[in-house]
Design brief:
The chain is of the alpha/beta class. The protein is built from 18 helices and 13 strands. The strands form 3 sheets. A 7-stranded mixed β-sheet has the order 1-2-10-7-8-9-13, with helices on both faces. A 4-stranded parallel β-sheet has the order 5-4-3-6, sandwiched between helices. Strands 11-12 form a two-stranded parallel sheet. Strand 7, helix 11 and strand 8 form a beta-alpha-beta unit. The longest helix has 22 residues.
């Protein structure tokens, strides 16, 4: 079996064998499935996940109050405003990011089930995390990366992650941007019989639940309250979903969960032309909006990362603002960290100004940094791609054409994403995903209401509107 068509025709069976989950048994309607049963059937509760992670020194990372940045943001807040900023320093995990949490449980499950190795398709930190955990477990590991454009130009951040994966002993398959990745990924799963350490399985999401659980407990132990807001860098949805579920499990029900992404509107992530015109591998709207409006575009039949269920607010920042706050974090707090967590920090710096001084805002991750992740490497590639770099008002920047780095902290801002539009887009995608002749059941409408946080009447009205337009 080598042809593209033959491999793709076996997609469902390859996925079932490589993750050991029969997703068909969770279907409860035309669109609906039993999400909580899918999560519960892994057999892992929060305490068991923590035990697994402690075996490989994952988790229990420090919570750091950013006192200097708090003092700075209060200079731009109205009297009595300027919440305290904290950050969960996830760079303290073995491979340097929160991705160790999701990787630890996936690799543990692969080992428990007797798979000879693990495979992950990722150009982000997750590859290094899987490679690190596989090394400790004595499993073989293959990482499939989308690394180049058609001219062979690689993003420095992805090249840095290639280096990290290989340092942990993984085999890395580097591909150019395009649809080939999924075909090669399926082919490798079929040929090797390895475990699919997908970012979107229940194991991956349950691994992140400990992050929300820990940060809520740490704030409560130190300050005797739960955080008022947790800001999460949002890409494929797993980071936000897992963190929010952990917050709920510890009882932090009133904590506001805020998604933050870099605004790369207008750039197409599957475009060879646009591939190197973004300075961030993930954490941008090229991932976050597609996966928020239709999570089941993932490499498994049912995505366990369902961010729209959990987010209270969704904001964007610019590339220049993330570069600015990255430098501010290093110079004021002595923490040189990579850009992923600094996306949510750039947003949190502004959100904290909107809250009173007795409130607490937590940025829930940092990531390690290295030569390829450094702002200078990113900006040099941007210049090479013809993108103008300047200082000034970041609102004037245009994704793919210019990066404007603020001149003062007062120029940092956030732009709110209209969640009502996102919910309508989700429902439109849901209806388009199924047979047009299929009739939705009450179970489907209940499921869609849970997915979008709308009431059933509203869901039915919007669905009827889209169905009417399609006729």
């Amino acid at each position: 079996m080598t042809s593209y068509q033959a491999v793709m025709a076996q997609r469902n069976e390859i996925m079932r064998q490589s993750v050991g989950i029969d997703y068909r048994k969770y279907a409860t309607g035309v669109l609906a499935f039993d999400y909580e049963a899918l999560m519960a059937d892994t057999g892992y509760d929060l305490e068991r996940v923590r035990q697994v992670q402690q075996r490989t020194a994952v988790g229990d990372t420090p919570l750091v109050e950013l006192k200097n940045l708090t003092r700075l943001l209060r200079l731009f807040s109205k009297p009595g405003y300027g919440a305290r900023l904290f950050v969960k320093d996830e760079a303290a995990n073995p491979s340097g990011s929160f991705k160790d949490r999701r990787a630890s449980l996936s690799v543990f499950e692969a080992k428990r089930r007797g798979y000879p190795g693990v495979i992950a398709a990722t150009s982000g930190n997750y590859g290094a995390a899987i490679a690190s955990q596989a090394a400790k477990a004595g499993l073989r590991c293959i990482i499939v990366q989308e690394a180049f454009d058609s001219r062979g130009i690689a993003q420095p951040e992805i090249a840095e992650k290639t280096r990290a994966c290989e340092a942990y002993g993984a085999e890395v398959m580097r591909l150019s941007v395009g649809p080939e990745l999924f075909y090669q990924f399926l082919k490798l799963l079929k040929e090797t019989g390895y475990f699919n350490a997908s970012l979107y399985t229940p194991y991956s999401i349950q691994g992140i639940e400990t992050l929300g659980y820990e940060l809520a407990r740490q704030v409560r132990e130190q300050e005797h309250v739960y955080p008022d807001a947790v800001v999460v860098t949002h890409a494929g949805g797993g980071n936000l979903t897992g963190t929010a579920r952990g917050l709920l499990k510890v009882g932090a029900n009133e904590t506001e969960v805020i998604a933050a992404s870099v605004d790369l509107s207008g750039l197409h992530m599957a475009s060879d032309h646009d591939f190197n015109r973004k300075s961030f591998t993930t954490g941008h709207t090229g991932f976050s909006l597609p996966f928020t409006t239709w999570p089941d575009r993932a490499d498994v039949p049912r995505n366990a990362a369902r961010a729209l269920r959990y987010m209270n607010r969704f904001v964007t920042v610019t590339q220049g603002e993330v570069f600015y706050i990255t430098q501010a974090l290093a110079e004021l707090e002595g923490l040189e960290r990579g850009p992923a967590g600094n996306t949510s920090l750039a947003a949190a710096f502004v959100i904290a100004q909107q809250l009173r001084q007795d409130r607490i805002v937590v940025v829930q991750e940092t990531e390690y940094t290295g030569a390829g992740k450094h702002p200078l490497a990113q900006l040099n590639l941007a210049k090479r791609m013809g993108i103008a770099i300047s200082r000034g008002d970041p609102k004037t920047s245009k994704p793919g054409q210019s990066i404007v780095i603020p001149e003062t902290p007062a120029q940092l801002d956030v732009v709110d994403v209209d969640l009502q539009r996102v919910r309508r887009s989700y429902l439109q995608h849901a209806l388009q995903s199924e047979d047009k002749e299929a009739k939705l059941t009450e179970a489907d409408y209940t499921f869609l209401a849970e997915e979008t946080r709308l009431d059933i009447t509203n869901v039915k009205e919007i669905c009827d509107e889209f169905i009417g337009q399609a006729r």
